[in-house]
Amino acid sequence: EVQLVESGGGLVQPGGSVRLSCAPSGFSFSTYWMTWVRQAPGKGLEWVGYINPDGSERVYLDSVKDRFTISRDNAKNTLYLQMNSLRVEDTAVYYCVRGHTVTVHWGQGTLVTVSS
Amino acid sequence: ENVLTQTPGTLSLSPGERATLSCRASQRVYMNFLAWFQQKPGQAPRLLIYGASNRAAGIPDRFSGSGSGTDFTLTISRLEPEDFAVYYCQQYGSTPRTFGQGTQLEIK
Predict the structure, then answer these.
(1) Of B107, B105, B106, which Cα lies nearest the Cα of B22?
(2) Nearest to A36, CA basis, from A72, A76, A2, A77
(3) Is the Cβ pair B47, A61 closer than 8 Å?
(4) Chain B closest-CA separation from residue A107 CA (Å)
């Protein structure tokens, strides 16, 4: 069974940093593109970016491009989202998603709250 | 950026009725790479339709997708109580990937 478990969310101050992790299981992680999607409280879904299987290609939403970094460690079977210079508007549930086109498998998400 | 606009914002119907949800793109969606998701409170989105008209595995046949180019439709033929939720369309034919703002399907 495919599972994706996010962790690392919490309360962070504006301007601060946080690193989210996603632990996949039930499939060969190193062969899949992976995506992050976020959802602000009570709002719709917003694509954040994706990474290719070997980590050499990454594409980002413009509003996060110079602040967020998606990376992966295939040896440790983990996907990351490093978030720097956080803003109040980055407050959201962040979902880890398998694939970058047809996305069947989503994690349950981890909440990041940016507030002073 | 390919902006997706969903209508209506809220749809109030009764179980057993037919639901028609619309998604209009600001640019042609490459290869009709358009998906529909269902989301219930506190849950992750669930893929219903991909490639505009292909049902994902395990999705009941009362859900169907149609359309091409810039205009797409999700139809639920006979609403079941568990179908009341928020529905999103998403295009995955270009970057940035974009979602519609959602249609809230509520019980009348």
Answers:
(1) B105
(2) A72
(3) no
(4) 7
